[in-house]
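User: Continuing from earlier, I have the next pair ready.

Assistant: Great, send them over.

User: Here they are, in order.

Assistant: Folding the first of the pair now:
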Amino acid sequence: MVQRPPSPDTPVVSPSKPVNAGDESVLVTTQQLVDILERYLGDGLDESTLETILLELDRGGYVEWVTVTQSNGYIWDLSESPEKIGEAIADAAVACLDAWLQDSDN
């Protein structure tokens, strides 16, 4: 069973449409992400699997869990996710290249 973070102090919102907390915020529910992935990839993850992945990304600081809907679904803040994930990939690529260069010197 997925471990859920403690309930936030923020108000509960309806999952029927995206939440807008400002011009630059990207807030979506897990189900909305499932729908988007299915629409753009032609196949999607089930909600519980995606939720598990998002919880791990939240623990790593790549997404931010904001609140829970009335139906106990999560709302995620993805506003800074592309930059954070891109930086992590770049760091990993540099580390791999550096290791490869170190090995080739030996």
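And the other member of the pair:
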Amino acid sequence: MKQRPILILAIILTLIIELILIILVYNKVGTERLPSQIGRLTIQLILIIWVLSSKSNVGLFLLAGYHIVSGIFGLSSKGSAELLGQILIGFHIIIGIVIYFHDWIENKIGIKKTLGNNV
């Protein structure tokens, strides 16, 4: 598996944010939204495993698309007027772009060249 530190960092950040959201929503409304949140987390985990275990870019495209579409759908939600809602919308859109363009970002900041010389 090739080194993809920006992609790995984006995935870790995504999982941390998702788990924090699950805990916060559970504490606020109880188990009412837990099934849908676990469903979202499961879909993300399936896509993440696909991305990390495959050389195909289809999983990468779907994971990035999932975040971008989630951000766009968040624009029409009731919570989008609140600061946390706006932050989450921005997070989804930005993380989707970072996931899709992780190779370009790594090349621009020279991460791949550094890792390639040390291996």
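Worth noting for the second one:
Residues 5-112 form one domain. The chain has one domain: 5-112.
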